[in-house]
């Protein structure tokens, strides 16, 4: 149903300037107002539309001006809810304050004070405060970044301002705006309807009603009518499930019905915590328990006879495995990864998908606008009476000559004869009817950015237009689906565009929207000059031809369809029907000036099934949508990464096959294969198969033509039964089920509906398939970096913990164990190893990241190779550190620990070897930590060759940390009071050489271990999908 409200002459047709003063003046004189138009309690559903328009000082044709919108925004604020789920700084602070790690440091600080070690106690307390501050600042910055990312994916709205349709952010809508809604939109604000076309809404969020509500243009008398029965209103956050409409915004922000109950769907919260984050939290708890066990072991070794030295040893053992800041760094890594992806035009709505991206094995992609440019143009048309015609394409510019060509379709512009050029001002009836259908069975529009008239544009020469396009000066704007825009441009080239025909007396009475299940749409028009009703229908040829009465040889027409489709053209069939027994009398024409309650419901009077029959076939149009230049390489990159690409499209199967070949989804071997019908199917064919039959296919089809939303759902379910990880693209409201059940749902940012965006995990701001591949590469990089970071952290912790445990057998003359590392040294180690860990979390991707197979989804982040690396590097680093401690302790005038309680009471000569051993261990450990960082950059590649050394010496983190460590060590080692009373060690001499030698040993042994892995372990690179498909 399509219904209008046209206000009477008393209603202003132009906007009235709005200021605070004239609002107050208007309030005094109008009984519509109650404390100004901000009074959202007004029962707008009970008011005539004329009163609503007058109350908001707006226009049904021009809407508001930009200046008026800004004034109203200052007056009423942004259209957003308060307390919309954003995390405040106080919440983050409380969350970090409750972090158990901080309280462990406070507890250890209290123990130090109890043992009268005030320096260590103060440092531990300072560490707790610094850790709290850093964790808070990092998480707060991450939340701010996440909020910014979410704002990028916030809903948009279409309004009419200054007489032009404009796309704006929903938060910028103000009362009085003229709002346009269509299928798939999330309504941006409460509004009073003034035009509808088969409009239905899902209002379950507000009313709990599960069925869509059909809207009508009526006046409701009861002010207390329930929300669900206010059928002349639309409400914020409800979903348009069908049709289109135009409405005047009555309430925004907290004044909307959804604002009154403070309810809005919010994606934040624990539900967005990734599997990795949850596992890290468990690991965090496990390491904390391990710290307690180590402290217990130390105390148990002396039968719990605690004194200062033993207490310090127990604290050192506990600190050696505490991963301070681990979860915070991981959260920041994920958020910053999401920020990086947004810069590559992929907005992450849910952080959990970043992990899944690295596991994607199959991409199910739409064709139009994703693999292709969505710059559709009509380049061919065919009418039965006259044959084939070629249309010169100029993009959106409605100019281009038309030539009659032969049936071979091999002709092109270079061989087209001027003798066959058509006079577009003098066309046959058959071509005129085809053009009329293209223009009127159509809801799209085109206009110039600079308000130039069509007539002026028609006067441009072909050379001028080509020059414009070459210079990038095309200033035409389109609204609507790409296919319909192409047909509208085609009609404009004949000066028969929809505006021209409307002006000539063609009035639309009803629209029967495109239905993906029947693959067609229709419109009902009144020709006022002839007082006749005409139905125009367009759609898929196989759905239109059976409805037509004037077809003698359907096979020949389908052959023509296949011929057009084989060139990669989308073929649209067009038809019409005169409703001969019904004429439009004067009374019927008067409906356009009556109130809505007197209008006839044309779509109810003429049912779809009754009018979409006995049609007159008019002809075919061939629409070309060129593949994106980058699509072929992006598909090849996916294949190299072990990812299969499937194209799901509504096109004819021959068109789909031609495009798939062009971008290499189908290669020559597959096209020559005897089993091509397994690789290319139609939606009905696939839907008719049972689950068992689908599961018995060697692989899922690579191309599915005439695909419906239900086909997409079935495809995802089939991939899940095969344990595949799928990424699905979608843009329509009907795509939301497949987007929700896919492992990674990807919505289109430009042409996608709000429903599709809300159901997705990622939104592509450029609708480009290549962006999906970049997002997968970024997801793999993020996951790799998390693995690198964790590997580094585990090696650092385990190697030191091994040394601490090994030294439990080392005793002083009194029989008490002595710690190889003092507690203050542990605090310094925390500061020294943190920068390399952070640097690993932001490393660039490895060169082979997109040449490796997808990561198994069930694989732990600590996979077999990482566990091997952790154990091997920890043993090697632990061995080097143990040697650094024991060699000075027992050689070169060293005779072990000769002093008693050296930690609490330094005895010159007796504790010297022990103190020098500690110093050498610390130097070696810090140098080895930098080596560990370089080893962790790659699992198998040489990092200490010429290439790796260049990267190392260019790293500000490595160089900065190295000099920080050296400067601190010089200060701590060679200022006696700091060395002896603070860190409990002494300055060293020849031991520097020992530390360097042990570091070189660690470098060489690590590279030797990588060499063995390269020789003995399976290559990490994958075979191309092309090779897999033909084996």
Automatic annotation (TrEMBL):
Classification via Pfam families: Cation_ATPase (PF13246), Cation_ATPase_C (PF00689), Cation_ATPase_N (PF00690), E1-E2_ATPase (PF00122)
Membrane topology: Multi-pass membrane protein
Location(s), subcellular: Cell membrane
One term under GO cellular component: plasma membrane
Residue stretches of biased makeup (Basic and acidic residues): 461-470
PROSITE patterns, per the entry: ATPASE_E1_E2
Protein name: Sodium/potassium exporting P-type ATPase 1
Organism for this UniProt entry: Circinella minor
């Amino acid at each position: 149903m399509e219904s209008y409200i046209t206000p009477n002459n008393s209603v202003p047709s132009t906007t009235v300037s709005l200021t605070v003063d004239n609002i107050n003046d208007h309030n005094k004189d109008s009984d519509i107002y109650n404390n100004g138009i901000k009074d959202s309690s007004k029962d707008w559903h009970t008011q005539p539309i004329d009163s609503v328009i007058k109350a908001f000082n707006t226009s049904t044709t021009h809407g508001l001006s930009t200046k008026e919108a800004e004034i109203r925004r200052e007056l009423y604020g942004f259209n957003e809810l308060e307390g919309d789920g954003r995390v405040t700084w106080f919440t983050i602070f409380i969350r970090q304050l409750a972090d158990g790690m901080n309280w462990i440091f406070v507890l250890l600080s209290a123990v130090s004070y109890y043992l009268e070690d005030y320096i260590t106690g103060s440092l531990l307390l300072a560490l707790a405060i610094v850790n709290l501050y850093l964790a808070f600042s990092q998480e707060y910055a991450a939340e701010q970044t996440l909020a910014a990312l979410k704002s990028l994916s916030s809903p948009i709205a279409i309004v009419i301002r200054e007489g032009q349709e404009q796309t704006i952010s929903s938060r910028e809508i103000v009362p009085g705006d003229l709002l346009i809604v269509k299928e798939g939109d999330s309504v941006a604000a409460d509004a009073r309807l003034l035009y509808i076309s088969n409009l239905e809404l899902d209002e379950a969020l507000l009313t709990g009603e599960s069925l869509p509500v059909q809207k009508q243009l009526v006046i409701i008398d009861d002010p207390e009518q329930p929300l669900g029965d206010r059928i002349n209103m639309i409400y914020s956050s409800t979903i348009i499930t069908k049709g289109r409409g135009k409405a005047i915004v009555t309430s925004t922000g907290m004044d909307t019905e959804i604002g009154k109950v403070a309810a809005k769907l919010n994606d934040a919260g624990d539900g967005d915590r990734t599997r990795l984050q949850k596992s890290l939290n468990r690991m965090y708890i496990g390491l904390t328990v391990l710290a307690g066990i180590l402290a217990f072991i130390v105390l148990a070794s002396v039968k719990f006879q605690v004194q200062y030295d033993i207490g310090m040893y127990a604290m050192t053992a506990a600190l050696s495995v505490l991963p301070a800041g681990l979860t915070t760094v991981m959260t920041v890594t994920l958020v910053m990864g999401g920020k990086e992806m947004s810069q590559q035009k992929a907005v992450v709505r849910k952080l959990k998908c970043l992990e899944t991206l690295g596991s994607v094995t199959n991409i199910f992609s739409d064709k139009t606008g994703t693999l292709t440019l969505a710059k559709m143009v009509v380049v061919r048309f065919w009418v039965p009476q006259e044959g084939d015609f070629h249309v010169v394409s100029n993009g959106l510019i409605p100019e281009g000559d038309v030539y009659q060509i032969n049936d071979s379709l091999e002709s092109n512009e270079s061989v087209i004869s001027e003798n066959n050029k058509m006079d577009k001002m003098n066309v046959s009836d058959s071509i005129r009817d085809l053009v009329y259908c293209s223009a009127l069975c159509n809801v799209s529009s085109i206009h110039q950015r600079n308000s130039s008239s069509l007539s002026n544009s028609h006067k441009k020469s072909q050379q001028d237009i080509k020059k414009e396009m070459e210079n990038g000066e095309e200033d035409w704007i389109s609204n609507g689906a790409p296919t319909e825009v192409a047909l509208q441009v085609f009609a404009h080239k004949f000066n028969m565009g929809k505006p021209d025909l409307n002006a000539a007396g063609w009035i639309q009475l009803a629209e029967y929207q495109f239905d993906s299940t029947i693959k067609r749409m229709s419109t009902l028009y009144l020709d006022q000059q002839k007082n006749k009703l005409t139905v125009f229908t367009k759609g898929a040829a196989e759905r239109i031809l059976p409805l037509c009465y004037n077809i003698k040889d359907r096979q020949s027409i389908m052959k023509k369809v296949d011929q057009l489709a084989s060139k990669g053209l989308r073929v649209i069939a067009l038809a019409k029907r005169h409703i001969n027994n019904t004429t439009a009398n004067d009374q019927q024409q008067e409906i356009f000036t009556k109130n809505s309650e007197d209008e006839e419901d044309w779509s109810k009077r003429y049912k779809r099934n009754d009018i979409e029959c006995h049609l007159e076939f008019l002809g075919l149009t061939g629409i070309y949508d060129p593949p994106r230049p980058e699509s072929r390489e992006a598909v090849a990159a996916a294949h190299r990464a072990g990812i299969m690409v499937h194209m799901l499209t509504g096109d004819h199967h021959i068109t789909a096959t031609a495009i798939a070949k062009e971008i290499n989804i189908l290669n020559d071997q597959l096209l020559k294969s005897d089993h091509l019908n397994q690789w290319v199917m139609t939606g009905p064919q696939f839907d008719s198969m049972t689950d068992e039959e689908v599961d018995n296919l060697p692989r899922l089809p690579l191309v599915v033509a005439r695909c419906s939303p239900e086909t997409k759902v079935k495809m995802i379910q089939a991939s899940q039964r095969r344990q595949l990880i799928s990424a699905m693209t979608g843009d329509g409201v009907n795509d939301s089920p497949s987007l929700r059940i896919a492992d990674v749902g990807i919505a289109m940012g430009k042409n996608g509906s709000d429903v599709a965006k809300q159901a997705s995990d990622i939104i592509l701001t450029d609708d480009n398939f290549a962006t999906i591949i970049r997002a997968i590469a970024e997801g793999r990089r993020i996951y790799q970096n998390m693995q690198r970071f964790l590997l580094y952290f585990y090696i650092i912790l385990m190697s030191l913990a091994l040394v601490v445990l090994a030294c439990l057998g080392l005793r002083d003359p009194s029989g008490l164990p002595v710690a190889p590392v003092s507690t203050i040294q542990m605090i310094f180690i925390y500061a020294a190893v943190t920068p390399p860990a952070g640097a690993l979390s932001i490393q660039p991707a490895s060169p082979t990241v997109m040449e490796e197979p997808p990561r198994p989804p069930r694989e732990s982040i600590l996979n077999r190779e990482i566990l091997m690396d952790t154990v091997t590097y920890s043993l090697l680093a632990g061995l080097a550190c143990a040697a650094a401690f024991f060699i000075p302790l027992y050689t070169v005038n060293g005779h072990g620990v000769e002093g008693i309680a050296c930690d609490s009471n330094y005895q010159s000569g007796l504790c010297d070897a022990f103190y020098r051993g500690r110093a050498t261990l610390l130097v070696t450990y810090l140098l080895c930590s930098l080596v560990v960082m370089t080893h962790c950059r790659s699992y198998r590649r040489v990092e200490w060759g010429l290439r790796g050394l260049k990267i190392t010496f260019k790293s500000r983190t490595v160089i900065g940390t190295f000099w920080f460590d050296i400067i601190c060590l010089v200060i701590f080692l060679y200022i006696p009071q700091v060395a002896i009373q603070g860190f409990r060690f002494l300055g060293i001499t020849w031991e520097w050489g020992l530390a360097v030698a042990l570091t070189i040993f660690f470098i060489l042994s690590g590279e030797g271990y990588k060499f063995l892995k390269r020789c003995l372990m399976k290559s990490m690179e994958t075979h191309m999908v092309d090779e897999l498909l033909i084996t």
